[in-house]
Design brief:
Elements (H helix, E strand, L loop, with lengths): L4 H11 L13 E7 L5 H20 L1 H4 L5 E8 L5 H6 L8 E6 L12 E7 L32 H25 E13 L9 H4 L3 H14 L5 H5 L10 H11 L2 E10 L9 H20 L4 H14 L12 E9 L3
Parallel strand pairs: 1-2, 1-4, 2-3, 4-5
Antiparallel strand pairs: 5-7, 6-7
Helix pairs in contact: 1-2, 5-9, 7-11, 10-11
Length: 336
Amino acid sequence: MDVVKPIIEEEITKKLDITRLSSNGLIDSFWIADFGCSTGLNSFLAMHVITEAIQNKFQSQRSIINAESPEFYVFFNDHVKNDFNTLFRSLPPERHYQAAGLPGSFHKRLLPKASLHFAYSSWALHWLSQVPNAVTDPTSQAWNKGNIYYGGARQEVCDAYSSQYAKDIESFLKARANELVSGGLMALLVPGFPIKFDYSGPFYKGQMVMDHIASILIDMAKKGRISEEKIDSFNFPTYYTFPEELKAIIERNGSYSIERMEIFDNPGKYAITTAHAHASVYRAVFEDLMTNHFGSEIVDEVFDSYRQKLEASSALLLPEKDKSIIIFVLLKRKLE
């Protein structure tokens, strides 16, 4: 958010057309939603930046619309198992909006038609709605036997992940197109890679967290701690896109104009500098998935082993080894 804050402020100033957001030019309430908010700490910063920028926009146009700033309502969305209790306990006491929880998959419609004025999602759209069916089907050419991700896999596996991603992003865009008012804005911060490259090659395979976790699970299977069948039926439901791929999906949807699209280096890679911190972060991200599939009794062993792997090869912690980027996209709902 620190990276894109000035851009979001600039784009709201330039692109938010207040007079078009309501049939009579007046807006009593302004609806904002964060899709994939998690437990809120990062989301609260984003909502502060967005609501403050919109307030400034209203104040700058007070003579045109002849109205005070509206009431802001922020809807915090994440899956139904998200810790909304922690989110609401952590709400900033000094805030310029009323808050509500919005549990459910952001790949589906969640709000009334043409009710949302500004949509936001950060570091969430790499999560798929499901693992591609083909990669866990022994009869499929995309069966990902002995692997838990598309990194280092055959082209058929990569294609299955790419197809699932395109389907899910299209569902997300379609749902938001129904919810956004004509002229409403949507800011997306999407993790990805700068270009499409050979996922089966050493450049990609050596960088991904999942490769190390997969090797740990395979070692555990050899020791009889878990079964090979358990590994074959487990794949991570995440996919990192690249700018041209994401742009093509948006353009195919047809409901939005792309107002701005920029690429940024991922600042997160510079914040995690020790093996312990690295293992802790990824345990927080993946523990629930692994517990549901393998059981809680192996989780400590997996991430202790992961930390030890990083300590034994500290070069993997170097920021330059991480090629991930942030794709910033600002979309405007086309007028109807």
